[in-house]
Amino acid sequence: MVSMAACRFSRIRYATPPEQFLTQRVILLVDDSSAVEHLLRAALKKCGAPIDLHVKRTAEEAVRHAVDAPAPDLILLDISLPDGNGLVVLRCLRLHPPYQDIPILMFSSSHADADMQRARAQGATAYLIKPVGLAGYSSLIGQLAERWLCVQCAGLGTPEQ
After folding, report:
1. What is d(CA 92, CA 88) in angstroms, rounded to the nearest whole number?
2. Which of 9, 114, 116, 151 is least enclosed by beta carbons within 10 angstroms?
3. pLDDT tens sequence for the chain (161 residues)
4. Which residues form the Response regulatory domain (predicted)?
């Protein structure tokens, strides 16, 4: 279980270097579901945009990633993780300077207003309900690419607003 004590970062990493900003984008998915990963990868392939998906399965892996790797361009963070609460991870990430301005979107199957309110209070940029099926994930990727990553999906056309 990740606690606030685990949020101490000994090294500071910076977000994507400017020369990479116009080319490759990185989404960090923090979710223990291999089905969600599979659907996101399929949707990204269909999208055709230069977006890499990095996956961490636990709260501990996500916090360790924040210390050891360059910051991603966007984070999709599940609330329910096998070793802790995604809201604790969110709070940890928001304390780490490179993550203060990165869009962190809570990505959950929970429709509970209380979860949405807690996510907003902890600094989530947005709260997304997990879609169903490849069509739902493809639509989601198109919207994420355009709104948060400023890239167009060649294989999906323009996402509807």
Report:
1. 6
2. 114
3. 444 444 443 333 334 444 444 468 999 999 999 999 999 999 999 988 889 999 999 999 999 998 899 999 999 999 999 998 999 999 999 999 999 999 999 999 999 999 999 999 999 999 999 999 999 999 999 998 888 888 878 765 444 43
4. 26-145
